[in-house]
Design a protein that fits this description.
303 residues, alpha/beta, Rossmann fold, 4-stranded parallel sheet, 10 helices, globular
Length: 303
């Protein structure tokens, strides 16, 4: 026969059992929508819209270069397990079509740039003749968000209201960011709105906001700058007194070091063009990246 103490012990244990089971369940794999994003910038936009409803995998992480990425052995498995795959498109991820085919995935695939007015490029290394860096214009990032919202709602209809609400709030934040960038550029003297960057990743920024960018590389980091291109840019900096050169987080610093050394141009802070920083860095999200870059431009060009 159970004593009064033993009965009380069993009752307490029984009462606490559901809570303990609930805690364990929260720590195990759940039924969130499995989504794969190709690289860090697209992944952040997906995260802003999806919140906690998805289990997100990013193939090319912070400070990684999607231009030259070589898929890892586990990437095919990640795609095979996904219900939705989000890429940039415009040829940025030249390795993606092969990876999708080899994975045998049945996931829906969406290109976040669908509907963007793509810039044509004469660069021999351009991606299918187009510049893929459409996110550099904040209004294009809004197109990304709309495509991501629609794709998530299609893959997970039960979460439609969440995705729509998150997207609406984030689109408002992007509108505010666009105004912030325009105000910052307007404060830079017009004669100083010229910059040297490592590769031509800011064409959409130039078209939208009015800064002029010169780059020794083309739109892809796969292309190495020729000695002729570097010499031409050095002459141009000296002739036109271009005030600052900037290194990007996905580029080899030696090229910019040489240009700065031979021209005397100021070396500005590191830019984040094709990838975010780590979460503890200055560009851990898309909005933080844009703010970091425009502040870097402003500091270098306004004096």
């Amino acid at each position: 026969m159970l004593s009064r103490r033993n009965v009380l012990t069993l009752l307490v244990a029984a009462a606490s059992w559901p809570a303990a089971c609930g805690l364990a369940a929260a720590q195990t794999p759940d039924d969130r929508l499995p989504v794969v994003a190709t690289f860090s910038i697209v992944a952040d936009l997906v995260r802003q819209v999806a919140g906690e409803r998805i289990a997100l995998t990013t193939l090319v992480g912070p400070d990684g270069d999607a231009h030259v990425y070589s898929p890892a052995p586990g990437d095919s498995r990640r795609l095979a397990q996904a219900k939705l795959i989000v890429s940039n498109g415009l040829g940025l991820e030249g390795w993606m079509a092969r990876l999708i085919k080899s994975s045998g995935t049945k996931a829906a695939v969406v290109e976040a740039t669908k509907g963007v007015k793509a810039r044509k490029s004469d660069d021999a290394h351009a991606h299918g003749g187009f510049d893929p860096h459409a996110w550099q214009d904040v209004s294009n990032a809004k197109v990304y968000v709309a495509n991501i919202r629609n794709a998530l709602a299609s893959a997970d209809p039960a979460g439609r209201e969440v995705y729509e609400a998150n997207a609406t709030a984030y689109l408002d934040a992007l509108d505010a960011l666009d105004r912030e960038v325009r105000a910052a550029v307007a404060a830079i003297p017009p004669e100083r709105r010229r910059i040297i960057t490592t590769h031509d990743a800011f064409g959409y920024f130039k078209a939208a906001y009015g800064l002029d960018f010169v780059a020794p590389q083309g739109v892809s980091t796969e292309a190495e700058a020729s000695a002729k291109d570097v010499a031409r840019i050095i002459r141009q900096i000296k002739a036109e007194t271009i005030p600052a050169v900037f290194l990007e987080n996905v580029s080899d610093p030696r090229l910019m070091d040489r240009i700065a050394r031979e021209t005397g141009a100021r070396t500005g802070p590191k830019l984040y063009s094709d990838a975010l920083s780590g979460p503890d860095g200055p560009a851990g999200t898309y909005i933080a990246m844009v703010r970091h870059n425009i502040r870097a431009f402003s500091e270098a060009l306004s004096r």
